[in-house]
Batch of 2 targets.
Target 1
Amino acid sequence: MNRAHTITTTTIDRWLLPHIGGTLAYADQHPAFAWTLATWLAEESWSLTPTTEVTPSSYLMPADSDQAEDILDWLMNELSTHPEARIARSLMVTWANNYESPQDLLIGVEGLALTGFPLGLTSKKKQKSQLQIVVNQAWQKTQTFSKLAEQTHDLSQKLIADELRKAGGKIDSLHPDTAEWCMATAQTKLYETDHADLKTLRATAETEGLHHLAEQFEGTITMIAISPNVKDTFVTDLVAD
């Protein structure tokens, strides 16, 4: 007799699942990192429960091995300290159960080939995390420079405050790119576009699980803030010059 399973995701599941999707997609393309991930997961005793499929977003995939390891460290810490993230844990377990380790893992490091010992590859200098804000062109013309600066600053602070709430108020539980933005760089990239593009940006962010925050006035989107943990190509890919 077949039984239907109801999959109930918790708040922490919904926060972590998109980032897990991006990390697993990176692992599927990078054998050395996949070996590291499988090794870490082998040490856990998480149970396998009915889970949900996650379509990975390219905007949440790590850019290189260093970033992948930072994000993995963050994810494993969050999953270890949140037993209620059963769906997120199960997605990781499912990936690990399907993982097949290559017999010989060849990794080039400064011209050398090492077998079966997955070291992180030397990567390019990491680009600093940026928070992206996209402003409605028509609405912007109605604002003074000082008022616009104040409102974009307020929106960025609301976005970071929301992530901090998801992290239980602990800076060290923030996504590593967001933590870097808070403690080191605090760089913000400002764009402007029309309302149609803003609607596309918001819809794509919602579909792909990208953390964002939108402000509206009389039914019109005035601004959207995009988290520092989203690749900074997100806006330029979707908004025409």
Note: DSSP finds nine helices and six strands in the chain.
Target 2
Amino acid sequence: MVLLYGADHSHTSLKLHEWDAGVYRAVPTSGLLSSLEKLPPKTRVGIELVDDRVSRAVKADLNALLIELERDLTSQRSYTLIGEAEDYYMDAAARYFEDIAKHCAKCGHEIVLLEDIDPYLKFNEALVKLNRQRVLDDENIRYQSKLASNIKKIKSSDTSYRLILEADKFNVLERDATLLKNIIGKKVDVAVVGRGHSDYWYSNRERLREDLGIVFDSYHADVEIGNDHRLQFFENRTLDSNILSDITNLERAVTFLENDRLVLAKEPDFVGTWDVSTPSKGYFELFIEEQDGQNVSGTIVDCVGDATFEGTLTSKSFDFVKTYQQAVKSSQKNQISFPGIKSGSIIHGCYNSKGLSSDHPAHGFVMVQTPQEDLIKLVMRRHLARQTLNV
């Protein structure tokens, strides 16, 4: 059995084309440190950390890749490349866990480093691909006509989203698998990791026990409270539904990234997107499960979650209302209406829910019965159809 500790150790996140500016470094609470002190001497404590040699190698690898990229770029413009920031993406988290390691060493525990270098090197490559796409697409868009520029912007936004998913796959999911592998292989008694891992593991502890044979018998955590990033130690920590939702959504998105589908076991009746500026982000699959004349109902699957729907399908329109089954974020808790117009083989419109205007261009959606439809082309077909209808 493994005693599990989680921590809100820092905050860094990727957004389209940039790092989130809100980076902070947390300090372990006295409560967590005291809990570690109470463990028997020579307890094997696994920590989400790499040694200095690996950390230097990862940073040197990224710097070399960025230098090579800058040589390849023909632009004379000045760009700030992701990864050049002084507060490098490994540092804020490492400082928290270094404090944990020093404290455990003083307590006479055996320190086990749970990180490996490979996911970080893959993440570096993904960052460089994102940088390259960002710079080159920006240059191309500047010299296009308005229509061509709009198409380029949609393609650029969609490609960026997919590249960020690829980066998150390495930085979150592959690292998650590596940490679990090393907890098992290195036979640790205690694991101290970030809450993005620990909350998810403890929520799925039955599956992990069945699949991997690892048993987490209890869970404590340093948790951020308030807006000043202050931590408080909680024994028998309640899980954060937002963290669980974020990881589950990422797993779904990566499934789509790798397969161009979310549900592999059956064919959907419609596929589409509710994000016409970044089509892959809003990709969904709609399954009609009951039909009585024009009245239809069933399930919609997207990267946010599973939803039920009820609607009316005619030869000229498809109007339906979607309700997420396990809404976490407030924007997902309302019923969302999709009034759809048929134009040829596509159905399109603007969705709306409480607080959202039904004619806001950012809330556009489009869908089609052809599962293999290219999403960028589908969005452009919507654009042309709405120009023809003058809406």
Note: The chain has two domains: 2-253, 260-389.
